[in-house]
Request: fold
Amino acid sequence: MVGAGCASSVGTGGARVLHSGQQEAGIGLDLTFPSARVAPSNPTVGVWPQGSLGYRRGLGAGFEAGARVWGFGWPRYLFTVGGGLDLRYALIRAPNQDEGFDLTLGAGTAYHQINAGGAPTHVWVTQAPLLVGFNLGGGHQLFGGPRFEVQHIRATDVHPVNAAFVGLSLGVVVRAMRFLEIRPEVVALYSPVGFNGTQDPGGRRGLGIVQFGLSNAILLEEL
Reply:
């Protein structure tokens, strides 16, 4: 269950939505720290790294679509893989990248599988972030906002679990070159999900996730 929270929630970009026909591609690294209260005592804390690849394209009329894949492997001990699709809409678009702010609503779905020395755990994720981005000049942007996620978790000989998460994200877009952006980001999520099957979970309740991401974006039309 600790690994279930490791579906990637970072790497979808700042609050700017690409214009029609614009494209970007990039790589990233996620580092996730899930904390699950599976017993009344101290929570069980893990750490989970994974690499990612992403592609985004502007669709026009304020819409943008994206796709990502991620994974990590440690031979004989651990293997994880996942992917997701998302759609974003510009509720408010700044007049340019040097002033004003952007407000963007997103919706996405993802699948994540964990194999840790036994039967795989399957996680289906629905994500809905709301991002506001403040343009700082020079193509830089500070962005963040609330987000909501639902995860459906299945594993062999374990009751299916539905967990609803609420949280926040914060990040910055750094325009390093005309065609290159660097995007550090952090996402924090919490769900009051219980860990004791059909019995009263008591002190066995709560899954927190802190995920750090560092990604880049190559703006293909600027090459």
